[in-house]
Amino acid sequence: MILRRGLVLALVVGAAVLASVLLRGGGHDNPTVARVGGEPITQKQLDPVVDHFRLEAKAEGKPFPDNGSAAFRRVRNRLLDLLVYRTELRQAAARLGVKATEVEVVRRLQGSGSAEPGEAIRDSFEYGSVEAQLLLERISAKVTSGIKAPTRAELAARRNRALSRYLARVERETQVRYEPGYAPGP
Questions:
Q1: Are 181 and 73 in contact (CB under 8 A)?
Q2: In Å, how far are 43, 98, 142, 156 from 135, measured between CA atoms?
Q3: Backbone angles phi and psi of 33, in degrees to 5
Q4: Nearest to 135 by CA among 95, 168, 169
Q5: What is the mean pLDDT of each run of 10 residues along the chain (186 residues)?
Q6: Whole-prediction pTM value?
Q7: What's the pLDDT at 91?
Q8: Does 1.10.510.10 match the CATH number of domain 33-178?
Q9: Sign of the C-alpha dihedral, residues 23, 25, 27, 33?
Q10: How far apart are the first and last CA of the chain?
Q11: Which sequence spans correspond to the domains of the chain?
């Protein structure tokens, strides 16, 4: 009887530890590097973005910092900040009731020449960039829908100010927590 209780207790504790690891970001092979409003950004999300820029630098004949160097950490952390911004956009869009579907993102990519019809999107950075652009367009339309002005130039200026104020508020009000060693610097 005591052995059975001990086994049950061990299973319960083990399940709790496993659940805790999964909720924190997937364990050691995919640690959480930041949280945006409670939503994790993981190492497996950050790595392809870093790889994208590493390949871009190579294609342009420019150096890319070596892994582990201080310069690499600065670049990596700036790229993480980009993922944080995109996550803030997705969360803000959801609160406003706007979205960008996978089909819309792929169509925009195909229209830009980044992907051929029927071709799989291989670069998650490009996909995320197009998704963010579509969301920003829809957020802008929603936030600026009631703005009026006597001229087109003044209308554009008023809309730009309203969108800037909205995005600044989103950034200010969204709680972002970076894991040690990942916070973007000045």
A1: yes
A2: 24, 7, 11, 19
A3: -105, -20
A4: 95
A5: 42 38 54 96 96 95 95 96 96 96 93 59 82 97 96 97 97 95 80
A6: 0.78
A7: 97
A8: no
A9: negative
A10: 61
A11: 1-30, 33-178
